Amino acid sequence: MKKYFIHNDSSPLGPFTIDELKDMEITKYTPVWCEGLGGWTPAARVKELESLWSDGQPFVYYAAPPPAFDKTAYDTSLKDGAALPPRPVRRRAALGTPLFWSGLALLVLAVIGALAFRYHSRTVDQTYAAALEQRKWEDSINRTTDTQRVQLSENPAVDNTGFDMNPDRNENAKNYARMNIERYVRCAKSFDAKRFGGIKDVKLVFYNNSDFTIDRAEFIVAYVKANGDVFERQNVTVANVPPHSKREATAPDEKRGTDVQCKLAKITSGELGLSKNVAVIF
């Protein structure tokens, strides 16, 4: 005798005979399966089960996919010798649907936006502010110099024969510059930092505000990661900086890093007889 499985939307039950199905009050739309059927089928479509209904109402079939298959519950309900019903097949959305292409377009735009954000640069440029400070400093020095000229005109240090009446004056100026050289220099930097790492176009500017030539200024450039750790250092040098002038130098680009820290480490001047380690951070 042929036996049938039915599905209760969570697991298959059975197998049952037709007489057992009569007592279970199944409907025309209850999914059933038996050997010989290709898949889960509405009960009203199985000719042997027509005797279960006598209302004469037409059966309207809605092409819905069968419910998910619970193998554990199904194996438990099997009886000896019963055949296994088919595994339900899940339907997949077609690749050509408008929803698919809309989702793909949004994904592409998101990727493009992420790449644009990735390569967006943050520019740091301190050179303009340093130049303004340099101008203020020079104006102050010029005012002091003008005052000294007036004093010298009233009390000349050189007589009418050209003899310097105060030969220690120039040496005193050198001594003061040697002891206070950090007050006579100014440094600035500029660079571009990519949002997720990468430093380029690093430029250092060294300002010599003294009355004496500085032969060499040595810098240490540190490339800093986002977490604050330094992963690379480079030594940079500027040479032959005349009085009241500036010199520029460049540092290598780096593929990593989000910030640049600089330190003026040493100043050398033959005119001053100076070779001094300093620590000017900028």
Please give a structural write-up.
With 282 residues, the protein is of the alpha+beta class. The chain folds into 2 domains: 4-77, no CATH class; 122-281, Sandwich (Immunoglobulin-like), CATH 2.60.40. It has 5 helices and 12 strands. The chain has helices at residues 18-22, 71-77, 98-118, 127-154, 168-179, and strands at 4-7, 12-16, 31-33, 41-42, 121-125, 185-194, 199-208, 214-224, 230-241, 245-251, 259-269, 274-281. It is rod-shaped. 18% of the residues are buried. Mean pLDDT is 79; it is low at 156-164.
Between the first and last Cα atoms, what is the distance in angstroms?
Answer: 94 Å
Estimate nothing, just give the exact number of structural domains: 2
**What is the CATH T-level topology of the largest domain?**
Immunoglobulin-like
CA radius of gyration:
45 Å
Shape: rod-shaped
CATH class category label of the largest domain: Mainly Beta
Task: Report strand order across the widest sheet.
Answer: 2-1-3-4
Strand content: 25-35%
**Can you summarize the main beta sheet?**
4 strands, antiparallel
Which class of secondary structure composition applies to the elements? Answer: alpha+beta
Mean pLDDT: 79
What is the ordering of alpha helices and beta strands? EEHEEHHEHHEEEEEEE
**What would CATH call the architecture of the largest domain?**
Sandwich
Poorly predicted regions: 156-164
Q: What share of the residues lie within helices?
A: 25-40%
